[in-house]
């Protein structure tokens, strides 16, 4: 069981990280629909706006409460996030609340913060709002995936990407439910590694497929990372309690290299020096997920 202080801190960190991830998933879905599916575009935009509200509330509550490690990890925002949002809004015509990003850039982390009963209640209320909203988004993503799989819909997003963002939404939901039961959602190192290794592998596959065919060197590097994370998944599956920590050490080193690759890619895409069909915000999005994974690995070793 976790304490009320841990409940508040972990809930706010979870909502700040995944609230942004969910709003961006909604934007990526919206950007990928064709004129044949205006109702889906509208629904995706509504989810984007709902999660912007969730994110803003979590950021306001979390300032001076969440840990300094999370604030400095690069998983909330990076130096490219605001510019990536501005460029993505320009390219897609989809509005993005950039004031939230400015609030996130000013976040302050505190070690051992004072948690009041009123804050516990506010966080509980926030989680109670997020859970049914997340259930709706999970159903929405499932419907899209089923429609694409049955050839009832075309989108510019890979079916694997839709499945990928569905799994992330389910992870968010599972963690929220665990927190509401006062359980630590990140209690199992092997499960955490298996989940995020697959996410990292799929990022590499998406990057490989969304780069312009002329970007041969970057395509080859992305393909190499996909293979390496596939190997890490196999190592984590077969690891024992005695050997998992050595696997984690290797995974951490590999993910730091991967983070550097993604950061260079985000910079290149923002500066229009890399040919691709990758939205600037998608590049920053996968960079932040690597930073999140690095922080988890560092805390669990």
Measure the end-to-end span.
21 Å
N-to-C series of helices and strands: HHHHHHHHHHH
Structural class: mainly alpha
Number of strands: 0
Overall radius of gyration: 19 Å
Low-confidence residue ranges: none
Characterize the biggest β-sheet. Answer: none
Mean pLDDT: 97
Name the helicity range. Answer: over 70%
- Beta-strand percentage range: under 5%
Shape: globular
Number of helices: 11
Report what the structure shows.
- The chain has 301 residues and is an all-alpha fold.
- The chain is built from 11 helices and no strands.
- Helix 1 packs parallel to helix 6, helix 1 packs antiparallel against helix 7 and helix 4 runs antiparallel to helix 11.
- It starts with a helix and ends with a helix.
- The mean pLDDT is 97.
Quickly list its features.
mainly alpha; 75% helix
Give the secondary structure arrangement, pairings included.
Blueprint: H1 4-32, H2 38-62, H3 68-72, H4 81-92, H5 98-105, H6 117-149, H7 159-180, H8 189-210, H9 216-238, H10 244-270, H11 280-300
Briefly, what is this?
It contains 11 helices and no strands. α1 packs antiparallel against α2 (38-62), α2 runs antiparallel to α6 (117-149) and α9 runs antiparallel to α10.
């Amino acid at each position: 069981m976790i304490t009320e202080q841990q409940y508040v801190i972990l809930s706010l960190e979870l909502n700040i990280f995944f609230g942004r991830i969910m709003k961006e998933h909604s934007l990526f879905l919206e950007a990928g629909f064709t004129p044949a599916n205006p109702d889906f575009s509208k629904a995706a935009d509504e989810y984007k706006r709902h999660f912007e509200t969730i994110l803003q509330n979590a950021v306001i509550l979390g300032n001076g409460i969440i840990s300094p490690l999370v604030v400095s990890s690069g998983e909330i925002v990076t130096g490219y996030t605001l510019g990536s949002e501005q460029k993505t809004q320009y390219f897609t015509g989809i509005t993005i609340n950039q004031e939230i990003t400015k609030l996130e850039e000013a976040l302050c982390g505190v070690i051992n913060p004072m948690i009041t009963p009123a804050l516990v209640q506010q966080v509980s209320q926030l989680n109670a709002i997020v859970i049914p909203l997340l259930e709706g988004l999970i159903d929405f993503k499932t419907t899209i995936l089923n429609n694409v799989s049955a050839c009832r819909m075309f989108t510019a997003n890979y079916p694997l990407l839709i499945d990928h963002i569905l799994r992330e939404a389910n992870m968010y939901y599972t963690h929220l439910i665990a927190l509401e039961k006062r359980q630590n959602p990140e209690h199992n190192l092997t499960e955490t590694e298996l989940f995020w290794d697959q996410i990292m592998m799929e990022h590499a596959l998406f990057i490989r497929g969304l780069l312009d065919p002329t970007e041969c060197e970057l395509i080859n590097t992305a393909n190499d990372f996909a293979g390496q994370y596939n190997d890490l998944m196999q190592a984590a599956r077969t690891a024992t309690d005695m050997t998992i920590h050595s696997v984690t050490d290797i995974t951490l080193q590999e993910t730091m290299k991967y983070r550097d690759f993604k950061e260079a890619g985000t910079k290149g895409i923002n500066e229009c020096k890399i040919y691709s069909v990758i939205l600037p915000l998608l590049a920053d999005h996968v960079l932040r997920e690597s930073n999140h994974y690095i922080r988890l690995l560092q805390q669990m070793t």
